[in-house]
Amino acid sequence: MRARTDESEFAGRRFGAAAGATVAALILLGMVLLVAMSNRARDAALERERHAYDVTLLVRTLDATLARSEGALGRFVLDEQVNVSGSIYANEWRLAGTQLRQLERLVRHDPAQAARVAEARGYYTQHGNNLARVAQAAASAKGEGGLGLFYTYTREEQNGSRTLGSQLRSKLSEIAAAERAVLRNSMEQTEFFSAQADRLTDYLSWLGVIVGLAAIGLGILALQAVRQNFIARREAETLEHAVAMRTQELSAANEALRAEAEERELAEAQLRQIQKMEAVGQLTGGIAHDFNNMLAVVVGGIDLARRRIGGPKREIMQHLNNAMDGATRAAALTRRLLSFARAEPLLPERVVATDLVNGLTDLLDRTLGERITVRVQGNSEWPIFVDPHQLENALLNLAVNGRDAMEGEGVITIATSDVILGEGEIAGLPAGDYVRLAVADTGSGMSEEVQRRAFEPFFTTKEVGKGTGLGLSQIFGFARQSGGEVAIDSAVGVGTVVSMFLPRTTVEAPEVQFHSIVSHGASEPRREPEGARILLVEDDPRVRSATVGALEDLDYQPVACANAEEALAAFETGRFDLVISDVIMPGMTGPELIRNLKHRYPELGVLFVTGYVGEGEGEDLKGYEMLRKPFTVGALQDAVAAALGRAEAPVRAA
């Protein structure tokens, strides 16, 4: 702490010393600049003063020269001695012209003086011309020939007019007076700037003394700084040693914590593995229990039908129908497991929820029974992008749950509406446009505890054997996969409303037509000629044999292959109207086979049959008919007719 304080004081002193030195340097520089400026101003004033002296002296000299020239001319007029007086006149007059030119050069930078000198030049020229005529008259006429002209040009008239000589001397007097004014001003400026330069020089001397004292002080501070720096380095070395020791201690503690964290992570991994095994055991037990019940129905129904093969047909058909119902429930349970585990991808398409719900009315009426009233309120117009068959199963499951909650009698309302949600208004959904599909019942309702656990797999409030606990889990997984959410609004004794919120879409997707494992009604009229040639590709021999038998009963001409290679070889010997292919097979998969065949036979009809669609296969199935295993002969008939009709549609359109 003390070292840090000393370092702060040292830094403060260094900053103060640097700031003081900077200020002193700036002041010194300013003083030097001021002294230089004062000296330059004084020199300029002295220069102007010398110039004024030169101009004034030259004007006086010019005036004297002019007077001597005129005097010499007067003597020449009187005595007519050309060699003496005439020569003096001529020489002096030329000298006056030379001096006038010098005066013009001296005042060329002063516009006012230059103008005055120009006027003097005019007077000089005119007066010279007049004097030249006097000299010529005196030289030629003899006697008093030039005397009259001389007096005419050099004497003032009675009316007050001035001669050119007097005007020339008056102009020279103006020039001299102007230069004397400049001289006085220059002398005053010279005195002012000289005094100012002397003052600044004194200040500069005192500032030099102050800077010298400051330098001594800075030297003292520098010595103190060096001493404190030495002390600070010693303290820093001591502190670094202490920090190194502390770092070593912290490193050892960190290693201990890391080892403890690894042990804890290992323990947590073991605990998770135990919990996972418990969950797997619970899952296996639940599935085994439900499948055993369903298989008991299937095996019992088939065994009873076989025992009574020679008995009444009605009794045999009852046992066979029970077996078929058990197999159908087992297939539905398998689809729920796959959907819950998200192991089977969705095959979405553009769907209008209101149209889908209206199409489910007949199926709901038959499934729920006569004592349940189904009301449909379709107000939604926005499209959604979902797997329609998964959505149908979800709505059917919700309706069945509502029927069970009402103990087989009551009103179930299925409503569709368009809603605009804010950010986070429903769970974690982003703000935007959604379609709400709500299934409401008038049953016993749910407690808060049941609502919290409603979406847990295998959680059910139904009696043993009446529910798998996967219904709401499947709906939850389907909604999340479709980009939506599920919400429950329930109160004990009032009823329950389960709402699915699915996002509005503008996506256009190729149609993927799924077919149920059983036919819900009469199949569509046959759209293909009887005896159509069908190539069946199925790796399981029992499924292959049963499917060939069903196709022969439907008056088709099937050819069976165990793999894709045999299918490609079969096309080398003949043409087919339709290919029925399993999706997952050893070697080349069903979608890969169809891509190969479609490249060569674009008009070929295609029907996929599968019990499971693997990850990444969903995109390859778009645009084709799909039939899930297991299936009935009626469901196969509907799917084959739809596939052949789809293959004929492009030909008719062309």
UniProtKB/TrEMBL annotation:
<keyword id="KW-0808">Transferase</keyword>
<dbReference type="Pfam" id="PF00072">
    <property type="entry name" value="Response_reg"/>
</dbReference>
<keyword id="KW-0547">Nucleotide-binding</keyword>
<dbReference type="InterPro" id="IPR036097">
    <property type="entry name" value="HisK_dim/P_sf"/>
</dbReference>
<keyword id="KW-0175">Coiled coil</keyword>
<keyword id="KW-0472">Membrane</keyword>
<keyword id="KW-0418">Kinase</keyword>
<feature type="modified residue" description="4-aspartylphosphate">
    <location>
        <position position="582"/>
    </location>
</feature>
<feature type="transmembrane region" description="Helical">
    <location>
        <begin position="15"/>
        <end position="36"/>
    </location>
</feature>
<dbReference type="InterPro" id="IPR005467">
    <property type="entry name" value="His_kinase_dom"/>
</dbReference>
<dbReference type="InterPro" id="IPR001789">
    <property type="entry name" value="Sig_transdc_resp-reg_receiver"/>
</dbReference>
<dbReference type="InterPro" id="IPR003661">
    <property type="entry name" value="HisK_dim/P_dom"/>
</dbReference>
<dbReference type="InterPro" id="IPR036890">
    <property type="entry name" value="HATPase_C_sf"/>
</dbReference>
<keyword id="KW-1133">Transmembrane helix</keyword>
<keyword id="KW-0597">Phosphoprotein</keyword>
<keyword id="KW-0902">Two-component regulatory system</keyword>
<feature type="coiled-coil region">
    <location>
        <begin position="250"/>
        <end position="277"/>
    </location>
</feature>
<dbReference type="InterPro" id="IPR011006">
    <property type="entry name" value="CheY-like_superfamily"/>
</dbReference>
<dbReference type="Pfam" id="PF02518">
    <property type="entry name" value="HATPase_c"/>
</dbReference>
<feature type="domain" description="Response regulatory">
    <location>
        <begin position="533"/>
        <end position="644"/>
    </location>
</feature>
<protein>
    <recommendedName>
        <fullName>histidine kinase</fullName>
        <ecNumber>2.7.13.3</ecNumber>
    </recommendedName>
</protein>
<dbReference type="InterPro" id="IPR004358">
    <property type="entry name" value="Sig_transdc_His_kin-like_C"/>
</dbReference>
<keyword id="KW-0812">Transmembrane</keyword>
<keyword id="KW-0067">ATP-binding</keyword>
<dbReference type="InterPro" id="IPR003594">
    <property type="entry name" value="HATPase_dom"/>
</dbReference>
<feature type="transmembrane region" description="Helical">
    <location>
        <begin position="203"/>
        <end position="223"/>
    </location>
</feature>
<feature type="domain" description="Histidine kinase">
    <location>
        <begin position="286"/>
        <end position="506"/>
    </location>
</feature>
